[in-house]
Amino acid sequence: MLTAPGPLARSATLLPSPRQPMSAYIPPHRYQLLSALVGTLLFGCFATLYPISLWMLVYKHRLSRRGRYTKIGIWLFAIVTILFLLAIAHFVLLICLAFAPFTSDSAVVGESVPSESRSATADLAITMSALLATVCHFIGSAFMTYRVFIVWGRRRVSITLPIMLLLTTFAGITITAANTSDGDEVGLMARMFESNAFPLVISTLALTLLTNITLLVLLLGRLVCHGRMLRQYRVNVDAPAIHWKVARTVLRSEGLYCAAIIANLVAFSARSYVVVVTLNILPQLGGISFTLIITHTGFSEIMAQLGKDDAAERGSRLRWAAPVVDATQSCDRLTPFDSSGELSSFPRVS
Hints:
The chain is 68% helix and 2% strand. It is an all-alpha fold.
């Protein structure tokens, strides 16, 4: 008596193994649709953070006297805009590739889409996603290296290790692309899961993760040391220093991006179809993590500036409050009026 396969057996058929034929590495449509859905949600988050970050840059880096903007503000504006344009291109690509097999003219009604069409669509999706993720990674890593250089007092020694890691990562990506470009008879995912190219893909992802962790440690270490110095010599400050807020923001945003890289590393190590989804979220997460730092630090500085303005306004009210003597009252009691118009009384001085 034949029985239907259980859920464990059905889920096991979704994960390819090295013993399966090359055609087994063609991802099914559900993973392409899932990657389009996740990419759409992340693009919506990025599209919301993009104008907010631009407003923060305009508010923070504007010079009131000359009416110009600082050089770092212009660079940040350009980087955020480039990342957003890359995110738009990646979003359009995901939508087109997700619905391409269903609108193919070669597919007959009632029959499945040919494996050649599925393989070409999957190869194009993985290639473009990897290319856009690489560009976003190097843009974000280059600016993080510049941040480390500024935070460490423009010492060239501080960026020696990050630059070496970036060059090694670029070399690893180039070698991996050269080894996976040969072999038109099989798909790109099959070539990446082969015994020759598989260690190169894993090592490239590990170098990418190591580069992000190194930049994060160098930046946070300097900010934490500076924050401890401020707390040690400024004991009268009740609120936390701005460097602690920046450190927490950088840790959360970069931690999210590092978690996505770890997910790609695990998916590639398991030779799972989930890599189609995890690879497609990298371009969006790169822009989200970058704009989160700008938005959160901008809000913190604006709130700190508003607090200073409020304290200065209260101090000016106290300085300009002058006692007014009423001739009808006794001279041993004064009735002052402050700048807000509220009435208060001072006790009699003996």
